[in-house]
Design a protein that fits this description.
This protein is an alpha/beta fold. It is about 30% helix and about 30% strand. The protein has two domains: about 5-60 and about 125-195 and about 285-365, FAD/NAD(P)-binding domain (3-Layer(bba) Sandwich); about 95-110 and about 200-285, D-Amino Acid Oxidase, Chain A, domain 2. Helix 1 packs parallel to helix 8 (about 315-330) and helix 8 packs antiparallel against helix 9.
């Protein structure tokens, strides 16, 4: 168990790196930093209470019932960090991808040949949380502040002072915001962000169909955005369904049979007949992006730096590449005094800038092109899908992005 702290025992604490947010990105960054350099003094601010050993039912909000599409590149990074062997036991491979445009002729099938690796895997957040918590326990030097939240930041030449809601002040060489799309850290660091509302929400659930999924994923574009089906264990799919804001209340109120019928009408029968749906959750779909997620001795990662539409499953994979490169840069520091310096953060951003902007532009353009009802656009996108279906080499950029296998530590290779 990592060191938990009584928040009233001290008014000021020192550390090398303070991470605000103990969800997926924050915990993975903390683990990566200590995996690369166990001598680092890392603190993790968690707004949630500490889980006791008796609370087996407790699920950290950052590791709920949702699922994540892990690209092949992300799986390789997790393997390098020593996490993938445990995660792969519960993950489901994506070996084929079917892309289609509802009501039109365009369709594209991407297949994994026998000699190729899977496009990626689908893992449930609860499984990832259990594996990550198991490995974090090995790093007893990690200090975790529970029931704490950030309220103020003061920037100094050689450090940054972060004030918590209980009056504690954390003096760190670098502060990392990993506190999600509505990041308080990003605001307090004065990192500008732009928000674009897609006018729709995502309905998330696990569903079952009459046909075996055979490790096939679906991306079905509709006028309100895509419907994604990702293969899960036990022959289930993870559903992400984009619905118009004005239709959300009605769809949320549907009974399970009504919901399945509505989904069937919207998606069609490519995956068979939908027979079962689990608990449904919803969240608004917005694009939140930062041109440069850096500040003096501060940086944002994950959804705090870029919150993307779930199309193509790029959001977490982009964040994984962010945190891996950041941890790598910290591990390369010749001394702790370099942590959080202008030079280090600028080197980090030079390695991440192209991937950051390219991935955001790609996902945003996919959403806008496939939700456009103009006939020239419809004709163009369907012709493109058919062309890629007939000439597989044309789909190489999509496959490359889906697999996410980039040379992360060489700026010229991106």
């Amino acid at each position: 168990m990592q060191n938990s702290m009584d928040n009233n025992t001290a008014t000021q604490l020192d550390c090398d790196i303070l991470i605000v947010g103990a969800g997926m990105s924050g915990c993975l960054l903390a683990y990566s930093l200590l995996k690369f350099n166990p001598k680092l003094d890392v603190m993790l601010v968690d707004e949630n209470p500490q889980r006791s050993e008796k609370q087996n039912h407790f699920v950290h909000p950052g590791f709920d019932a949702r699922s994540l599409a892990l690209s092949a590149g992300t799986c390789e990074l997790l393997a390098e960090l020593g996490l993938w062997d445990d995660l792969q036991l519960q993950a489901q491979p994506i070996e084929d991808i079917h892309i289609s445009d509802r009501g039109y002729f365009g369709a594209l099938d991407l297949h994994k040949s026998n000699k190729q690796q899977a496009f990626g895997y689908v893992a449930e957040l609860q499984d990832i949380g259990r594996v990550l918590n198991k490995h974090l326990k090995q790093h007893k030097q990690l200090r975790r502040l529970y029931n704490s939240s950030l309220t103020n930041i003061e920037k100094h030449p050689e450090h940054i002072s972060c004030c918590l809601d209980n009056g504690q002040i954390i003096k760190a060489k670098m502060c990392v915001g990993a506190d999600g799309a509505n990041s308080v850290t990003r605001e307090l660091l004065d990192i500008p962000a732009q928000t674009s509302d897609y006018g729709c929400c995502a309905v998330i659930a696990n569903v079952r169909s009459s046909k075996a999924h055979l490790n096939k994923a679906f991306e079905r574009f509709t006028e309100f955005g895509p419907i994604a089906l990702l293969p899960l264990s036990d022959n289930r799919y993870s559903l992400v369904w984009s619905v118009a804001n004005e239709d959300l209340v009605r769809i949320s109120a549907l009974t399970e049979p009504e919901f399945l019928a509505e989904l069937q009408l919207a998606f069609g029968y490519r995956a068979g007949v939908f027979t079962e749906a689990g608990k449904r959750d919803t969240y608004p779909l917005k694009l939140i992006k930062t041109y440069k997620p850096l500040a003096h001795r501060g940086v944002c990662i994950g959804n705090a730096a870029h919150c993307l539409h779930p199309v193509m499953g790029q959001g977490f994979n982009l964040g994984m590449r962010d945190l891996y490169v950041l941890a790598s840069q910290v591990s390369r520091a010749e001394s702790k005094s370099q942590i959080g310096s202008y030079q280090m953060l600028e080197q980090y951003w030079q390695l991440r800038r192209a991937d950051h902007h390219n991935t955001i532009a790609l996902t945003d353009s996919m959403v806008r092109i496939f939700s456009n009802s103009s006939w020239p656009v419809i004709l163009g996108r369907n012709t493109a899908l058919q062309a890629m279906s007939c000439l597989p080499d044309l789909s190489t950029p999509i496959i490359k992005q889906a697999k996410g296998q980039f040379n992360l530590l060489n700026r010229d290779a991106q």
